């Protein structure tokens, strides 16, 4: 029987030692995305290979059950899911890491298969390109991912679920010798109609976000990044529906997963490239930057219960991309482009 892993736990544990979506955006990361990845022990080359998987790298399901596919693979790494919200019908982004027994990440061409139970016919393979978490050095905060971290890339697959309910997941990585290793997990998929979080195609809620003005000039009240960013100039409610906006809910210092720092750095890097075409807003998560005081009003109005979340909204106020959890640089940029 397939072995389940706890969603997020292994991924987050590794990320903490090193330093929690759905989307319609499924572009394959560019091969030059690995330029900032450290070359030690062949990591750079492995990440490069992992960034361009093809369906041909993996066996077709051909009516085989998930268990039958798993039986043909060597037991290998653990599956560490880095996103938690999945919906049906439509594609859902599944972000994850593959972790070896010694706690180090595994990089190679990777894909995902899913089925309601291990005994059911599998759907897939859904290719999962690796996407790096490293921004250019000048955009890195104290909480950033760095070239010395073991986890420098995250896998992301756009998975189509036929219906809502529980699903078993089989992620497989192709080794250098052509053999496959498998890792398993379980997730819950909800119906789109039951998902309270605004999705792609929905009109974005007109929420007020914190600004430097509302904080009376004290940026420490509205930004836990070190150093603080300059993405607090405008209130989302004042610009939504008037120009494109990238709204990121994250808390670099207090994030339970420690991926908020790198993701916030990515937004700052995107602002430097697209800031003349789009407003970039960073919204902190907790009232008074205190976890015990609960979520700030904008998160409650978006019905969010985890972080980080990125929403890209076009000039008409319509959400064009929604990403949860760990996001790679190319995935972030592709999301931004949907709103332009």
TrEMBL record:
Signal is among the record's keywords: yes
Keyword Signal: yes
Domain Thioredoxin: 198-340
Span of the signal peptide: 1-27
Annotated spans, Disordered: 22-50
Polar residues: bias regions: 23-39
PROSITE patterns: PROKAR_LIPOPROTEIN, THIOREDOXIN_2
InterPro entries given in the database record: Thioredoxin-like_sf, Thioredoxin_domain
UniProt cross-references to SUPFAM superfamilies, sorted A to Z: Thioredoxin-like
Keyword terms, alphabetized: Signal
Protein's name according to its UniProt entry: Thioredoxin domain-containing protein
């Amino acid at each position: 029987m397939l072995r389940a892993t706890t969603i997020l736990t292994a991924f987050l544990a590794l990320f903490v030692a090193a330093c929690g979506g759905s989307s319609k955006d499924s572009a394959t990361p560019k091969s030059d995305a690995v330029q900032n990845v450290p070359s030690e022990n062949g990591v750079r080359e492995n990440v490069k290979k992992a960034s361009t998987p093809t369906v041909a790298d993996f066996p077709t399901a051909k009516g085989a059950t998930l268990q039958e596919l798993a039986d043909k693979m060597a037991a290998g790494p653990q599956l560490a899911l880095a996103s938690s919200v999945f919906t049906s019908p439509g594609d859902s982004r599944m972000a994850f890491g593959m972790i070896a027994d010694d706690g180090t990440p595994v990089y190679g061409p990777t894909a995902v298969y899913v089925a309601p139970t291990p005994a059911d016919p599998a759907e897939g393979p859904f290719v999962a390109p690796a996407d790096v978490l490293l921004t250019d050095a000048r955009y890195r905060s104290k909480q950033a991912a760095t070239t010395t971290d073991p986890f420098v890339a995250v896998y992301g697959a756009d998975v189509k679920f036929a219906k809502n309910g529980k699903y078993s997941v089989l992620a497989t990585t192709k080794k250098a010798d052509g053999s496959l290793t498998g890792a398993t997990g379980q997730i819950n998929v909800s119906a789109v109609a039951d998902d309270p979080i605004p999705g792609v195609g929905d009109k974005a809620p007109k929420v007020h976000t914190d600004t430097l003005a509302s904080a009376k000039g004290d940026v420490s009240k509205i930004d836990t990044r070190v150093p603080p960013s300059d993405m607090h100039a405008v209130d989302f409610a004042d610009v939504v529906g008037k120009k494109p906006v990238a709204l990121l809910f994250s808390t670099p210092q207090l994030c339970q997963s420690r991926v908020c720092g790198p993701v916030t750095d990515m937004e700052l890097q995107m602002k430097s490239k697209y800031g003349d075409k789009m407003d970039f807003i960073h919204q902190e998560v907790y009232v008074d930057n205190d976890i015990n005081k609960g979520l700030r009003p904008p998160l409650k109005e978006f019905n969010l219960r985890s972080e980080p979340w990125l929403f890209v909204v076009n000039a008409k106020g319509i959400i064009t991309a929604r990403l949860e959890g760990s996001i790679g640089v190319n995935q972030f940029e592709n999301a931004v482009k949907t709103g332009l």
